[in-house]
Specification:
By secondary structure, this protein is an alpha/beta fold. The chain is built from 8 helices and 17 strands. The strands form 4 sheets. The protein has a 7-stranded mixed beta sheet with strand order 5-2-1-6-7-9-10. Strands 12, 13, 14, 15, 16 and 17 form a 6-stranded antiparallel beta sheet that branches. It is elongated, with a radius of gyration of 22 Å. The chain starts with a strand and ends in an 8-residue tail after the last helix. The relative contact order is 0.11.
């Protein structure tokens, strides 16, 4: 089936790779423009653009795919399907009605509609996440679905461990969905079949406030979940009295007793008191520094004075 692919992130690049290995390679890839990144603010293409260029796939990078001229570029491809994964922008008419859409969404819809479904699932302590293939509709992530697969979230899993597996699953599911559609065998069901409105949850975009670890008002388990949800791509941080944030990349909950917000360093180990138990930091990244284990960090630093 001739299709146009819309995607941007590393996750979306993995899904595109699966399409390129199948009979459903897109005739056009649409992604976001290059953006300045890093200290030098050099323009960098998103991962999907890099892959499309490497594989010689026609690439289109509009500021908005919904602008009339941009939409016309997609219309001119005469696609039989629009395939989408982690595009990072809302798709509107006339593209919504141009062709059947197949959107790879990394959650068990209707749970965790929105921008950060994997992160929010880990933060919430969900035992499962997964991938859903759904139609694009005007309402956010509310379209009917043709396939869904579960994935177990293990106790110590973080985003960096889970997301690559979900991307591989999503790519495989997308190829299968397109093949079924080619044969006229695809079946679509409403997300709320067998559910009520209370099963709908929203995965809001991760803001700076969501990154802040606040031991004086949070449990050790909640802090650990936040760290795992935001590692390695975003990063959870403690604000400190020095004004330099301390990024935490790995931690574990212990039953040691320590006042909430108090940091204690002992024998190369670093503990932070919370409102119930204690969080032991295992791996950190100081501001402007490299990732390191806590023992290495404490060789050149005292226990930080934690704010919040």
């Amino acid at each position: 089936m001739r299709n146009v692919y819309l995607g941007t992130s590393d996750f979306a690049a993995t899904v595109l790779e699966k399409l390129l290995e199948s009979p459903h390679a897109p005739s056009l890839v649409v992604t976001r423009p290059a953006r300045p990144k890093g200290r030098g603010k050099k323009l960098q293409d998103p991962p999907v653009a890099v892959l499309a260029n490497e594989r010689g796939i026609p690439l289109f990078q509009p500021e908005s795919v919904n602008d009339p001229e941009s939409a016309q570029r997609v219309i001119d491809e005469k696609p039989g399907a629009i395939t989408v994964c982690a595009f990072g922008a809302i798709v509107k008419e006339p593209l919504l009605s141009l062709a059947p859409s197949f959107n790879v969404h990394p959650s068990l819809l209707p749970r965790w509609r929105g921008a950060a479904p994997v992160e929010r699932a880990i933060q919430a302590g969900d035992h499962f996440t997964g991938v859903t293939i759904m139609r694009l509709v005007e309402e956010l992530d509310a379209g009917p679905m043709c396939a869904q697969e579960r994935f177990v979230i293990r106790e110590n899993d973080n985003y960096g461990l889970i997301a690559p597996h979900l991307a591989e699953i999503g790519g495989r599911m997308l190829v299968s969905a397109l093949s079924l559609a080619d044969s006229g065998l695809d079946e679509w069901t409403d997300q709320l079949d067998g559910h009520d409105e209370r099963s709908i949850t929203y995965a809001e975009k991760i803001l700076r406030e969501d990154r802040l670890l606040r031991p004086r008002s949070s449990t050790a388990t909640d802090l650990d979940r936040t760290i795992r949800a935001l590692t390695p791509h975003i990063g959870a941080i403690f604000e400190t009295a020095s004004g330099e944030p301390l990024r935490v990349e790995e931690a574990r909950v212990t039953d040691r007793t320590l006042e909430p917000g108090t940091a204690a360093a002992e024998d190369g180990r670093l503990f932070i008191g919370t409102i119930d138990m204690t969080l032991e930091l295992l791996r950190v990244r100081p501001a402007g520094g490299k990732s390191m284990d806590v023992e290495s960090f404490l060789r050149g630093n005292d226990a930080p004075q934690i704010l919040g």
